[in-house]
């Protein structure tokens, strides 16, 4: 119940800024139009392989997915807590730090899905020739895949934020992760079209499960069994987060607090 309340409070807090967030929606939609225009131009003179006209749907869905799996709080706010010394109190609370911050982040993800993902995608549906699933189960598997992707992103940001206890500054890790995500997750270009070394590197990471796998499941180009890989990564990253939290409790180094 506590974790649901934390998520609800985070959701409610974001509701106060719905008007301001519309600007982000407009900018995100425009970027999506730009990416679609680029691929439409490429498709006029080159074959887009198995994607064909579905490439527009691929790019549009990926652009919306950013608000669920990529645009999370930097380090889940841990870096700022380290700078102010608040992290010491957070670790002393009877609520586990990872579950505490994760619950708050789920509230923000829910808000961004309702007020960012859905409005932008509905706009795309009316303006662009998108390929929509015809099976209800496809929507269900896509939702499960997106939940797994969001959880992976939460774990990654938690690990990045926790690094601030030893490095003082972990923001650079956030941007390194963001850069690798844009490159290896299939956000702008399908993973199978990456150069050989990058394609191999991507296959050994969790990045394809952030964009590539959910989008292909949505388009009916991937079997639901692909989610198994995401579940395994969720389990591994959860273990890493819990072990790191235990280490944080044993030895905490607070800069400036």
How would you describe this protein?
- This protein is mostly helical.
- It has one domain (2-250).
- Helix content is 73%, strand content 0%.
- It contains twelve helices and no strands.
- The protein has helices at residues 2-15, 18-45, 54-69, 78-84, 86-92, 97-127, 136-162, 164-167, 171-184, 196-203, 212-218, 227-250.
- The radius of gyration is 19 Å and the shape is globular.
- The model has no long low-confidence stretch (mean pLDDT 86).
Short note summarizing the structure:
It is built from 12 helices and no strands. The chain is mainly α.
Q: What global shape is seen?
A: globular
Which structural category fits the helices and strands?
A: mainly alpha
Main beta-sheet annotation: none
Q: Based on the structure, what is the oligomeric state of the protein chains?
A: single chain
Query: How many structural domains?
Result: 1
- In total, how many beta strands? 0
Roughly what is the average pLDDT, rounded to an integer?
86
Q: Report the C-alpha radius of gyration, rounded.
A: 19 Å
Strand content: under 5%
Low-pLDDT residue spans: none
Number of helices: 12
End-to-end Cα distance = 31 Å
Helix content: over 70%
Q: H/E element string? A: HHHHHHHHHHHH
């Amino acid at each position: 119940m506590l974790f649901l309340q934390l998520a609800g409070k985070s959701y409610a807090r974001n509701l106060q800024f719905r008007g301001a967030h519309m600007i982000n929606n407009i900018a995100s939609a425009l970027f999506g139009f730009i990416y679609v225009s680029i691929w439409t131009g490429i498709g006029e003179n080159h074959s887009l392989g198995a994607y064909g006209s579905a490439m527009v749907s691929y790019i549009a869905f990926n652009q919306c997915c950013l608000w669920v799996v990529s645009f999370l709080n930097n380090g889940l706010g841990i870096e700022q807590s380290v700078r102010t010394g608040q992290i010491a109190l957070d670790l002393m609370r009877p609520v586990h730090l990872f579950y505490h911050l994760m619950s708050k982040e789920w509230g923000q993800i829910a808000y961004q899905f309702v007020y960012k993902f859905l409005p932008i995608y509905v706009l795309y549906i009316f303006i662009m020739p998108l390929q929509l699933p015809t099976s209800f189960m496809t929507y269900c598997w896509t939702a499960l895949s997106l939940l797994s992707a969001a959880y992976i992103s939460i774990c990654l940001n938690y690990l990045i934020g926790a690094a601030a206890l030893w490095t003082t500054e972990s923001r650079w890790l956030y941007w390194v992760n963001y850069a690798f995500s844009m490159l290896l997750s299939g956000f702008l270009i399908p993973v199978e079209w990456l150069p050989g070394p990058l394609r191999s590197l991507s296959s050994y990471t969790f990045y394809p499960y952030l964009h590539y796998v959910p989008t292909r499941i949505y388009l009916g180009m991937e079997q639901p069994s692909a989610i198994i890989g995401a579940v395994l990564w969720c389990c591994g990253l959860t273990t890493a987060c819990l072990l790191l939290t235990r280490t944080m409790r044993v030895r905490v180094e607070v800069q400036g607090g």
